[in-house]
Design goal:
The protein has a single domain (about 20-125), classed as 3 helical TM bundles of succinate and fumarate reductases. The chain contains four helices and no strands. The protein has helices at about 20-50, 50-65, 65-90, 100-125. Helix 3 runs antiparallel to helix 4 (about 100-125).
């Protein structure tokens, strides 16, 4: 095959990351993480109903520090994916495409996810009262 003298498309390493790019990639990653976590959640429900020994083992695993990190990340992924999904719904109707609005709503989605994750985990560790 003969080599072409045409310029090639710039690679990701050429461009400086922008908020919209980073949030788009994060949205996809959190979607995959939610899917994996949903499989674990379904297994948790199954063990609760049909396998008491498996439930005890899974509870011990998720109660460990690494299990709590996983659950914390899953909680953050849920709230981030939820908030960013609402942004996408507005984009579907043609709203919020201006760059300043896109940046503000992107940061709002991140702060919402942080705030709600902190609220949920604070509620859990406060004993649910």
């Amino acid at each position: 095959m003969a080599s072409s003298s045409r310029p090639t498309s710039p690679h990701l390493t050429i461009y400086r990351p922008q908020i919209s790019t980073v949030l788009s990639i994060a949205h996809r990653i959190t979607g995959v993480g939610l899917y994996i976590g949903l499989i674990l959640f379904a297994y948790w429900l199954w063990t609760a109903a049909y396998n008491p020994t498996g439930y005890t083992s899974l509870h011990e695993c998720l109660s460990s520090w690494i299990g709590r990190i996983f659950l914390f990340g899953w909680t953050f992924a849920f709230f981030y994916h939820f908030a960013n999904g609402i942004r996408h719904l507005f984009w579907d109707i043609g709203k919020g495409f201006e760059l300043p609005v896109m940046a503000r709503t992107g940061w709002a989605a991140v702060f919402f996810a942080i705030l709600m994750t902190g609220f949920v985990w604070g509620f859990i560790f406060a004993g649910g009262n």
